[in-house]
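Readers outside the structure-tokenisation community will struggle with the description of the input data as it stands. What matters is that the chain and its backbone geometry are given together, residue for residue. For illustration, here is how one protein appears when written out as sequence plus structure tokens:

…
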Amino acid sequence: MKNFLARTWKFSKRLFLALFISQFAYIIILKWMNPPVTLTQLGSFISGNGLKRDYVSADKISPNAGLAVIASEDQLFPDHNGFDWKSIQKAIEKNKKKRNRIAGASSISQQVAKNVFLWQSRNWLRKGLEIYFTFMIEWIWGKERILEVYLNVIEMGRGIFGIEAAARYYFEKTAAQLSKREAAMIASSLPNPTRYTVKPLSRFVAARYPWVITQMNNLDGDDDIKKILPGKKKKDLPPQ
């Protein structure tokens, strides 16, 4: 029995070490390469929602797209270490008051960690892994790469993943050509892109995207944000 336990413990340590090295290597590889597929994308395909995606490099994405998702999802993205602690605390307090509703406060970094490396669920195991991967990509990738991956892998409609696929499906143009208004409309759907649709235009997106445009205008002069935006320089932004 002792020999069996010893062998099991030895095997477990080796397995853990192999898994740790593998995931660490994968994180490093993805600093330069796009993820081949994510569990969320696979789930969409298997469930019959389809899989429309077309990864593009940062220089082929309008800065309007990056500014829109920051304005809509995570305005402190350039400044935090992967976690917006004030928003997290607000979400915790809100969930205590309204237990039948779950408010989220995931940063862009957390959403990338969840969508690239993990699965969609709400449990402590996945949340713990999300914290780990968020710290790792903040450390290894940096803000520009995190934003680029976010814009390529996040679901932006039923079976539509990434800003290039969304731009082509909704507006029949490339991600590089998105105007401020179009980018704001896509970003406004992100809280629940399968429910809050851009095409046809849902009431939620119609009501929210003017607010996103206002926030984009407020953030437009922020030097920390301008440094990490994809695409061309600010003077070359597509028109509104």
Q: What stands out?
A: The chain has a mean pLDDT of 86. The two ends are 72 Å apart (CA to CA). The chain has one domain: 18-234.
